[in-house]
Write a structure and sequence with these properties.
Elements lengths: L2 H17 L6 E6 L2 E7 L2 H4 L6 H13 L8 E6 L3 H10 L3 E6 L1 H6 L4 H9 L14 H13 L7
Parallel strand pairs: 3-4
Antiparallel strand pairs: 1-2, 1-3
Helix pairs in contact: 3-4
Bound molecules: zinc ion (ZN).
């Protein structure tokens, strides 16, 4: 399938999602033009605030390919990824992102993507969500254990 066909599939998933009670988002992960996984947003239907289309598609693709590293794959998403999904896409090592609607379009229909992007640009002290450092010396032990472990799998 070419790029437009893959995006049309992501868009179709976003429309099906609305009809099925989910959010208006769909995503497809493909490798060499072949669909590896596809998903829509299931936040409200699964009671899972992290169940965005991109995260759902990444979970399916990784499970299907039996790996946490999706290098060589691309994601087609009906809307620009939110910060959580963008982070997940980096962690998954997807090669490239194609999107249709953008964060401003999402903001116009009541989604927080643009707000969260603006929060990230602020210093922690300026953000609406307060952050506080607790017990870093105690938490460091796990990092030292990881660093010294011979059995660790880097990702
Ligand atoms: Zn997202």
């Amino acid at each position: 399938m070419d790029k437009n066909e893959l995006m049309r599939r992501a868009i179709a998933l976003s429309e099906e999602s609305v009809k099925n009670g989910g959010g208006p988002f769909g995503a497809v992960i493909a490798r060499n033009g072949a669909i590896i996984a596809e998903a829509s947003n299931s936040v409200t239907t699964d009671h899972d605030p992290t169940a965005h289309a991109e995260v759902n598609a990444i979970r399916k693709a990784a499970s299907r390919l039996d790996t946490f590293d999706l290098s060589g794959c691309e994601i087609y998403t009906s809307c620009e990824p939110c910060p959580m999904c963008l982070g997940a896409i980096y962690w998954a090592h997807l090669d490239r992102i194609y999107y249709a609607n953008d964060r401003k379009d999402a903001a116009r229909i009541g989604f927080d993507d643009d707000f969260i992007y603006r929060e990230i640009a602020l210093s922690p002290a300026e953000r609406h969500k307060k952050m506080e450092i607790l017990l870093p010396q105690e938490a460091r032990r796990a990092f030292e254990m990881w660093q010294q472990s011979a059995e660790k799998t880097a990702y």
